[in-house]
């Protein structure tokens, strides 16, 4: 894997349609596995308040925040339901040799 890619976990460590927390230095991410077996990563904290989205609920391509039920499309970062209005930052994800990698800039 080329420079800038950070290993998150083995592919099987995230269930389908679920999310895990991944901390790396000062950055905290939410890493998702979709119901279509694709992997995505966003900033871990909700843009509404500082609540970690890894405690939220994954439904299709949406993550629902555990605090006020704001929603985001985790494949694009777009805010989908108030009180979440500001988009999440997304990060590139790659799978190689059975492992999930994210690119953190
Ligand atoms: S903290 Fe996420 S919607 Fe309020």
TrEMBL record:
SUPFAM superfamilies: ISP domain (SSF50022). Its cofactor is [2Fe-2S] cluster. Keywords: 2Fe-2S, Iron, Iron-sulfur, Metal-binding. One of its GO terms (molecular function) is oxidoreductase activity, acting on paired donors, with incorporation or reduction of molecular oxygen. CDD domains: Rieske_RO_ferredoxin. Residues 6-102 form the Rieske domain. Pfam families: Rieske. Transmembrane segments: none annotated. Belongs to the bacterial ring-hydroxylating dioxygenase ferredoxin component family. This is Rieske family ferredoxin.
